[in-house]
Amino acid sequence: RLGSAAEPGSRAIQGGESALPGSLLFSAGLLGNLLALFLLGQQRLRRGRPPRASAFYLLVSGLAVTDLLGKCLLSPMVLAAYAGNRSLSELWPGGGEPGRLCQLFAFLMAFFGLAPTLLLLAMALECWLSLGHPYFYRRHLRRRRRAAALLAPAAAAALCALFCALPLLGFGAPVQYCPGTWCFIRMAGGSAPARGYSVLYASLLGALVLAIGLCNLASMRSLYRMARRPHRRSGPTAARAPAAPRMEELDHLVLLALMTVLFTVCSLPLIVRAYVGAFAADFNEKADLTALRFISVNSIVDPWVFIIFRTSVFRKFLHRVFSSRYNSSAHTKTSSLSA
């Protein structure tokens, strides 16, 4: 067993492991994020001149840039380890166990696992405020949306970096995982500070996912109320019917919901492993590696979800489904009022 959490001093990569899966995942993540950024740029330019960017647009762009940066920083280290048949701890030793490169890799893994969650939370809050509290949003946030969309992620990134750097300062412990090409915080055994930090990290991740889910549910409720809210038509035969939904907000909400479901699925294995390892000292290398792969796959699949969502076929289908439900509701309510 080489490169495991229980044996952080391993020098070589575990036999039988290939660099092909890592190379394919890196290529898919790189291509997906670049295409997502290209589509976001095309969205701004499709009307001839760049319109003023919305806060949601800036946050989605920030999420794509964050995912792209994470892939470009982490994947080359993994590929270099495979190319030299040396574990991360041996590529740049020194600085105490498990080596400087492994410590850097663990910090980056923790940061890029947490930072996208904060951006998703900012997107969920923006969507909830614009739908549920439109007057407050227009009065206090809409005019300052560019500053808010830039300053809030910057402040969140700084706090996230400080939190993820705690293991380098002694609270928590970075460790090398099997097969020697992964490093992350220790999730099983170790000292009390190491176990405490893993539980704190998993709890923070879980709390953010829960907050995003609650914001999405509140936004869905506001969108439903908006569609059911009656408005008076003009003309002598005026009748009250449900107001037409705002398709832009619907697009934002569906995209956010898809990304939230994806991130929840990718985060749950890590959260479960951190709690199990902290309280039961369960040394399961295969389960740990699966959890790490799940959290890293999120940044690969995220941009492809956005790309598929931006296709005209998918959006026309979504609008057709929602419009048919709206028209049916409007017809039912109008008929009942006329009767």
How would you describe what is shown here?
One of its GO terms (cellular component) is plasma membrane. One of its GO terms (biological process) is inflammatory response. This is Prostaglandin D2 receptor. The chain is mainly α and 339 residues long. The protein is built from 10 helices and 4 strands; from the N terminus they run H-H-H-H-H-H-E-E-H-E-E-H-H-H. A two-stranded antiparallel sheet has the order 1-2. Strand 3 and strand 4 (240-242) form a beta hairpin. Helix 4 (100-132) runs parallel beside helix 7 (192-228). The radius of gyration is 24 Å and the shape is globular.
Tertiary shape:
globular
Q: Runs with pLDDT <50, length 5+?
A: 1-9, 231-245, 333-339
Strand content: under 5%
Mean of pLDDT: 75
Radius of gyration: 24 Å
Main sheet makeup = 2 strands, antiparallel
Helix content: over 70%
Order of helices and strands: HHHHHHEEHEEHHH
Count the beta strands.
Answer: 4
Count of individual helical segments = 10
Structural class: mainly alpha
Distance, first to last CA: 77 Å
Subcellular location: Cell membrane
GO molecular function: prostaglandin D receptor activity
Membrane topology: Multi-pass membrane protein
Organism: Gopherus evgoodei
